[in-house]
Write a structure and sequence with these properties.
Elements: H1 7-39, E1 48-50, E2 58-61, E3 64-71, E4 79-86, E5 90-95, E6 104-110, E7 116-125, E8 128-129, E9 135-137, E10 141-142
Length: 143
């Protein structure tokens, strides 16, 4: 007499194994999605846009960088982190005043890092910074 599994039993075992494996993958995937949503809570309605004046949204005048940005999202921006990457160094500035929906912010920051290669604006809300909503500007002209 043969001591092997019948084709019916092996099919049932294969289906059970596949179902268990599929359930484990789906549970893992939903956990990953939930964690991803937690990191962006509060940021889904945040959007920052550069505003050009005379063809420039960001410009450098000797040791001062001027910029114009607008909150075009559906939520007030409660903080703004500005990172300047220059030839000599990297400077970071924090703007802690609220930028209401639709408002335009025109401001300047002092800098001594040489020619600026890139400016990164990271908006924030009460819950924290929204790095995934950052605005990067690489074309910095003279004012």
């Amino acid at each position: 007499m043969k001591k092997g599994l019948s084709p019916l039993m092996s099919t049932i075992l294969l289906l059970l194994f596949a179902g268990t494996l599929g359930g484990a993958v789906m549970t893992w995937g939903s956990t990953m999605k939930a964690e991803e949503q937690e990191t962006t809570a509060g940021c889904e309605n945040v959007l920052l846009k550069e505003i050009e004046i005379d063809g420039k949204s960001v410009c450098l005048a000797s040791d001062e960088m001027n910029f114009v940005v607008q909150n075009i999202g559906k939520r007030d921006i409660s903080k703004l982190t500005i990172t300047l990457i220059g030839e000599k160094d990297i400077n970071k500035y924090n703007y802690d005043e609220i930028i209401p929906v639709g408002d335009i912010l025109r401001n300047s920051v002092q800098t001594d890092i040489g020619a600026i290669k890139k400016v990164i604006f990271v908006p924030g809300v009460k819950e924290g910074l929204c790095a995934e909503k950052s605005l990067e500007v690489e074309q910095i002209a003279s004012c």
